[in-house]
Design brief:
By secondary structure, the chain is an alpha/beta fold. The strands form two sheets. It has a seven-stranded parallel sheet, sandwiched between helices. Strands 7-8 form a two-stranded antiparallel sheet. Helix 3 runs parallel beside helix 4. The structure holds nicotinamide-adenine-dinucleotide.
Length: 270
């Protein structure tokens, strides 16, 4: 059984690995034996800091590689992939982790520039560009790779006020299914993970009025009340799902699914 979840020798490429979700994925994948390559703009967190955070958690400094790549620029992603292949080796798993929300507004007041930025972040940089670049390489080189997209609870059920994020994450669910069908003849799997609510940089101010004091906003309280497990998620909650979907031995016949990891948020009823 241990072999099913052993990722030794796999090279896993993850975009946007500096946030809460990316760090959780990184920790799990490194502990399963993988080499982890992170693509980041290095804007919010310097590349060395990401690598050292993960090294501290896992003791796997020699298996962590961080490259400066802007995933919203196809040329940068293409050059980035060549550098990874030259310096680490060809990846067999792509995790599309870059993404996030910006603020919240009533529908008719939503700023349209912000709306476009959020769509662009989550759909172009967050999915299309890295997927095109990686899948093209895999198809040309007959690699049966695995793609993991990061969806959200809002992929299934809209959240109020975050209209572009809703639209983008619903599209992530849709594109996960469409790409799974498209790439299946090449043995490339495409799945998604839909985290419920985990405290990240991009949603902290929506969920807390004072994060340091642990004071929840009305929205934060409503989410907890609406989550049958009665809490936000923690990094550990994501470990098993990401390793399962990355491992061909464990999930080699699984494609096109998006797995919620949400403490029951999506099945809450009255
Ligand atoms: N935290 C949650 O509760 C939650 C729930 C569902 C889905 N998600 C998704 O998980 C992913 C990670 O979110 P998180 O909560 O860890 O957020 P975070 O803000 O902590 O991290 C976001 C990551 O995306 C990267 N990023 C942001 N803007 C970028 C840009 N323009 N170009 C390239 N990279 C960029 C950041 O550098 C960072 O690595 C996102 O796709 C987010 O939508 C988060």
């Amino acid at each position: 059984m241990n072999n099913l979840f052993n990722l030794t020798d796999e090279i896993i490429l993850m975009t946007g690995g500096t946030g809460t979700i990316g760090l959780a994925f990184g920790e799990a994948l490194l502990n399963a034996g993988a080499k982890l390559v992170i693509w980041s703009r290095g804007k919010t967190v310097p590349l060395e800091e990401i690598a050292s955070k993960l090294a501290q958690k896992t003791g796997a400094a020699d298996r962590i590689f961080a490259f400066k790549v802007d995933v919203s620029d196809k040329g940068s992603a293409e050059a980035g992939l060549q550098k990874v292949i030259d310096e680490v080796g060809p990846p067999s798993v792509l995790i599309n982790g870059a993404g996030g929300n910006r603020g919240k507004a009533p529908f008719i007041e939503a700023d349209l520039d912000v709306f476009q930025d959020v769509l662009k972040l989550n759909l172009l940089g967050g999915l299309m560009i890295p997927t095109q670049v990686m899948a093209k390489y895999w198809i040309e080189n007959k690699v049966e790779g695995s793609i993991i997209n990061v969806a959200s609870a809002t992929s299934f059920m809209p959240l109020s006020g975050v209209w572009a994020y809703d639209a983008a994450k619903a599209a992530v669910l849709n594109l996960t299914m469409g790409a799974a069908k498209e790439f299946a003849p090449h043995g490339i799997r495409v799945n998604g993970i839909a985290p419920g609510f985990f405290i990240g940089h991009q949603n902290r101010d929506l969920l807390y009025t004072d994060f340091e004091k642990g004071e929840l906003s009305e929205r934060g309280k409503a989410i907890i009340n609406h989550t049958p497990y009665n809490r936000f998620g923690t990094a550990e909650d994501l470990f098993g799902t990401v390793v399962f979907l990355a491992s061909k031995k464990a999930s080699g016949f699984v494609t096109g699914v998006t797995l919620p990891v949400d403490g029951g948020y999506l099945v809450d009823n009255i």
